[in-house]
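note to self: dont lose this again. the chain is below, predicted strucutre after it. 821 aa total, dont forget to put it in the shared folder this time
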Amino acid sequence: MSHAADLAEAEATFLRGDYEAAQQMAAEEVARGVWNEQWSKLLIRCQLTRGEYAQALQTYEKAISRYSSSLSLRLLGRDVLRMNGQNDRAKQEAALILLTLQRSPTRYLSRDNMIAAGRYFAESGEDAREVLELFYDRVRDVDPNFVEAYIATAELALSKGDYKVAGDTLAKAAKLSPDHPMIAFLAYRAWQPSDSERATLELERAVQLNPNHVPSMLARVDHWIDRERYDEAREMITSVLEINPHQWEAWCYLAVLAHLDGKFEIESLMRQSALSSWAENPEVDYLIGRKLSDKYRFAEGAEYQRRSLTIDPSFHESSFQLSQDLLRLGFDDVGWELAEKVSTDDPYNVVAHNLVTLHDTLSRFSVLSRDDIHIRMEPSEAEIYGEAVIDLLSDAKRVLCEKYGVVVNEPIFVEIFPAQKDFAIRTFGLPGGDGFLGVCFGRVVTANSPASQGPRPSNWQSVLWHEFCHVVTLEKTRNRMPRWLSEGISVYEERQRNPSWGEHMSPVYRMMMLGDDLTPVSELSGAFLTPKSGLHLQFAYFESSLVVEYLIDKHGLRRLREILDSLGDGLSMQASFERSIGSMERLDVEFAEYARNRARSFAPLADWSSKVSEKPTQDELVGWSIAQPNQYDALQQLATLQMSRKQWESAKQTLQRLVELGVVSGSRDGVLEQLARVYRELNDRDAELETLRQVIDLSGDALPALERLIDHARASKDWTQLAELGERVLAIHPLRPLGHEAIMDAGRELDRPQWVARGAMSLLQLDPVDAAGLHYQCARALASMERNDEAKHHVLRALADAPRYRAAHQLLYQLTNELAE
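---
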């Protein structure tokens, strides 16, 4: 019993990260000759963790001669042999596991050996469900408290992209062993794709449980590289190498950092160091390549995956990563073929299965092409607004390529998805990604169509202009630019194209900018990766665009283009900025002052100094606004309360005061939208119309305001205004009848038959109630443009739906006679 207690203490010491002490305890017991293979396995784990690979081999040689029937020891020995450069023998050792099981399977039914056998078969590519049922589930059935069975199950689920199964399994494991750092680390991985905040908490817990937990330390390195906090990443890598100077993943990350710095000779040396212990490790090139792809270096990432597959052609992770890289580079034929192969070879790979299923949907999309821009859209959507999409993107290519001095010689692919889950799968591999309207990988863009965004979608023209700007800047920099700069230029260019597009100053942004939410420019990319909330993410876009505006205002567009050229040449962000405008440290200081001055200039007459008490009464708010008539928070809360109580006249006075103070923006449900509603309730038509016009001038997606203005324009027979408003609606939601009907009505009254025909053809794609009437109107419009063959087609369609349609018969008679002549 004393040995068992000592073993539990030694295991706990190992889990706490005191590897030296755990190793000493295990070494003493092994030297004493205690007949318990667990001591030998613990000693080997300590030696592997600390990079003492030669010593681990000696320990294994002695142990396996004594415990030759131990599958778990033999599986551990395979890792030992690999790290000692004995890859052939490692394969033989793995083969012995299968041979041992085949000879006498019933002899090896201990918990450890069952888990080891399951891991062996899982790594060999056997059916994941059978591995789960035949090994891991059986162990849990016999011993529901055996934590290693839960860990192995979670690892298998994570390897297949089944994050829900992994998360559920780890939740059970955490109840059994709350102090196990590997459980917390695996939970971090399980939550990472869907809940970054929860994932961060799990990772912090793992590090609290074991400050020397190498997988968690490496996860932090990965995270900091994403956030462009490269100095912190290097410090953590140094800490990992102090634990294990041969830790191959740490050397991989150093190779990535060298590549990002443009130090390609050092990158090669770091890669060689990663391969120094196990030269045939396919995960080295896989990890370096995956991380470069995370930084949008898809071409370089793909090259690393090819290296990995040269080492091990059966390494599915590299095959699938290569397929994703190629799909993001626009090499669809090879990319989809690889994804199909991975899905066939590994049917439980959820991400691969999702992609292959999506490919069937994409194959039915329409393709529109012009200027080497190829747009894939759902067929009915392509009929409705496909030409408008390609017109916009052709213009974007002309304007933005000229502005930034870019020549795009390769095809550009844009895919627009009517289902948000399809967009997410194409973009991220899994459903999710709520809040993303579009993503640009370089010369491949994916976007949500208005159909996927609910009743009040974003302006699709603004979204596609934004994404195409990414195409231009990523092309100029060869995908070598920080996230914040890429996003900042795109949002800035939205506003340059149309002042109502993009992010703008608002009361909320003003308070964030003057509070604690302004991020130094040098750390801005991190604000996109782990924002505190959706609002903070949107603020990151706005702040980044202000940085670009500041750079252009102070240094000119030429300097910005120089920075992009330097990034494209392989210089780091810091070196690129220093070459053209000075140090990042100075930029941090100067921009902070610029941004805060911009914030102060928004509604300077308003009093922003204090907030009223929580849940104040109306009397308290009235009193506060009398005592401090310029106080924003009191006025805003008072207006909201007055509107909720339908005190429209009082709400009007309060909101008008806010407008007088300059608290005006295009924000949804902002002061102007509230005031327009109040005017409507008070039947003040002229004031409502004027306010609504201000709303649509400030906001590119103010669909409710446009609906009201269309009603007023139609009622007042202002056909020119009606047509303009219809076009604005189509820029937001071309899949609703509203805009098309407005343009058709204006076209009839202004004798613009082309408008009528276009509107009718679009409405016919929207499952209309009166299809026959639309075909007839389309036919009349086409006939007036002397497009008689097309007109006859539509009039026949009208008669097919309504055989007694007298006007259609008359038009058909007229068209038939004209065609005969």
